[in-house]
Amino acid sequence: MFSLHGSGLGGGIAIGRAHRLAPQLLDVAHYRIEQHRVGAELVRIDCAIVDSRQALETLTENLPSSAPAEARALIDIHLMLLEDELFVQGARAIVTEQGWNAEWAVATRAQELAEQFDEFEDLYMRERGRDVRQVAERLLKSLSGTSAQVSGAGAESPIFVAEDISPADLLAMRNGIGFAIDLGGTTSHAAILARSLQVPTVVGLGCARELIRDDDWVILDADAGVVIVAPDEEVLAQYRTLQAEGLLVKDKLKRLTNVPAVTVDGVGVELLANIELPGEAESAREMGADGVGLFRSEFLFMNRPDLPDEDEQFEAYRDVVVAMRGKPVTIRTLDAGADKPIAAMKAIHSANPALGRRAIRLSLAEPEIFLVQLRAMLRAGRFGRVRILLPMLAHGHEVDQSLRLIEQAREQLRDRRVAFAEHVEVGGMIEIPAAALSADYFAGRLDFMAIGTNDLAQYTLAIDRDDYAVAALYDPYHPAVLRLIAGTIRAANKRRRQVSVCGEFAGEPEATALLLGMGLRQFSMHPASLLRIKREVLHADAGKLAVRVARLLRADDPIRARAMRERLTDPERQ
Ligand code: PEP
Ligand code: MG
User: Fold this and answer.
1) Superfamily of domain 35-144
2) What is the per-residue pLDDT across 64-101, written as a single tens digit (0 to 9) for each?
3) What's the pLDDT score for residue 452?
4) What is the distance in A from the centroid of ligand 2 to the CA of 373?
5) Do 10 and 223 form a contact (C-beta atoms < 8 A)?
6) Does domain 255-573 have CATH number 3.40.50.10420?
7) Is ligand 1 within 6 A of the CB of residue 476?
8) What is the number of the ligand 1 atom nearest to the C-alpha of 504?
9) What is the pLDDT of residue 134?
10) Is 454's C-beta closer than 6 angstroms to any atom of ligand 1?
11) 189 is catalytic
12) CATH 1.10.274.10, the chain: domain bounds
């Protein structure tokens, strides 16, 4: 028995037998072709392309209704690569000019191209390298006669173990009860899909494919990011119990869907959803969300070479607003840059993109692009209650300029005689320490504030939130981070402005009592966490927590603060 650690994408625990997916690119036949057979070898490449295209098209036609809207676009990227001159002609040239077999030609050309993409600093471009490798693997499967269908697609409830996986394969292998993936990237296309599909997945395992054998028993804990291989009977029994409990808890929690979130001392709390794809609004509503607290609009801009136009954005925003049936929908303006690369908005090269021209800075530097988004949001406002959220504020003039541009967007719509909402609330993300320390000033200028604890912790602690090497030091419970959160909530409450926390912190049950004690009354999180947080709220006493949390916030020693936090909901002390 041994365990491997990576990044869990959520979705619970899966227990099953391993099925390894072959990295075909590393292991291809390599032989010379006689001159008179070159033509036939080129025909083999052409047939493999046709076969692969058909497989991808069939996949698109049969997309399950639960597949996120983005799935089609991700498959389209692979279809486009099958037509790509650099790739296809390059492979053909290796056959005609160097006399190698088709498999070797495809693999070599793919490797050359992928290595060029790997050189890019830009995450989006590096992702394209993975796409090239994945398309080549599909062609190799077809060339080897196993058809372009994914091997393993028919196996019974396996846990797939792979070096990497393409979004298309992930969709084709819906028989998989879990995925253990060696390559990292919680922001990769496949990771985004896996999260949306809620299939237990752990990425960034490093050497799972090397260490796990076919048919090994595997426990995949996608909440903890752990894979246990060949577990003994005792561990297996423990995890089976945990899995059953998890399902039971999920089932029990469902009963809370329509129960109002009110603490034992009668304090009402709003539980909102974070969504990334328009299609997720439906599941937010089914989970009983009081609205959308954060719609990360950049997902409309990702994985494509161009920008979505005003109509496309309007339709996406309107769909969410309509699905939420009058409940508030907070749409964040484009938060591009650093961990959220957008191909069509090439950021100016920056040695440190997390501190560069990103988010609101980029939108204000590109007013024409910003105006398109603002117009789309104002138009969607006619169909319900839209709130505009500005990311990464640090300066007051960023609010002033944004408000002026919102007014300009209104004038443009008036001139065009297009209907829009005259009034929409405008709020700001508090996720840079400078903004948190000036919370009173921002509360005076904004209609509402949303605390982004993911970035607030990153910038307060100087820890890159996506860097595995320092991941252990990333601690949103650090007393300094907690004080910034508490100070922002206090400033907003004093001025009677709505304030929410919309970072991952809001979806952690361990943090609910703490945040309630700070005076937070709006929590925004992934829809899958809503009911668990509601259960915490129903058991909490906001009045008592306020006293305890005030004491906790005075503790400088992180260990003491942690101990106090763990005792916050101690029934002995209730
Ligand atoms: C945050 O930073 O906490 C946040 C909610 O925004 P994102 O994770 O999209 O940066
Ligand atoms: Mg952020």
Assistant:
1) PtsI, HPr-binding domain (1.10.274.10)
2) 776 666 677 778 888 998 988 889 999 999 999 999 99
3) 96
4) 19
5) yes
6) no
7) no
8) 3
9) 85
10) yes
11) yes
12) 35-144
User: Which ligand is located closest to the Cα atom of residue 186?
Assistant: 1
Is the CB of 455 inside a 6 Å radius of any atom of ligand 1? yes
The per-residue pLDDT for 424 is 97
Return the best residue to mutate from 272, 301, 302, 431 for the ligand 1 pocket (most ligand atoms within 8 A of CB): 431
pLDDT along the chain (574 residues), means of 10: 88 92 68 90 92 88 71 83 90 92 90 84 75 87 65 69 79 85 69 77 89 93 92 94 87 91 97 90 92 92 87 97 96 89 73 90 96 98 98 98 98 98 97 98 98 95 80 86 98 98 92 97 92 95 96 88 86 51
Residue 339 CA, ligand 2 centroid: distance in Å: 9
Closest-CA residue, ligand 1 atom 6, reads 452
Element (H, E) at 561: helix 558-566
Cβ contacts of residue 372 below 8 Å, gap of 6+? 307, 309, 310, 313
Task: Give nearest CA residue, ligand 1 atom 3.
Answer: 452
Task: Provide CATH 3.50.30.10 ranges for the chain.
Answer: 2-22+151-253
The alpha carbon of 497 and the centre of ligand 1 are apart by a number of angstroms equal to 20
Size of the chain in residues = 574
Answer whether 389 contacts ligand 1 (Cβ < 6 A): no
- pLDDT for 27 equals 64
Q: In the prediction, which pLDDT does 571 show?
A: 59
Report CA(120)–ligand 2 centroid distance (Å).
23
Q: Whose CA is nearest to atom 4 of ligand 1?
A: 452
* Contact yes or no for 150/139 (Cβ under 8 A): no
> Which string of DSSP letters, residue by residue, matches 222-239?
TTTTEEEES--HHHHHHH
Catalytic residue among 19, 78, 189, 526: 189
Nearest CA to ligand 1 atom 9: 296
Task: Give alpha helix (H) positions in 417-508.
Answer: 433-437, 439-445, 453-461, 479-494
The CATH T-level fold of domain 2-22+151-253 is: Glucose Oxidase; domain 1 (3.50.30)
C-alpha 328/C-alpha 293 separation (Å) is 8
The rounded distance, in Å, linking the Cα atoms of 435 and 200 is 36
Cα–Cα dist 207/181, whole Å: 9
Q: Where in the chain is the domain with CATH 3.20.20.60?
A: 255-573
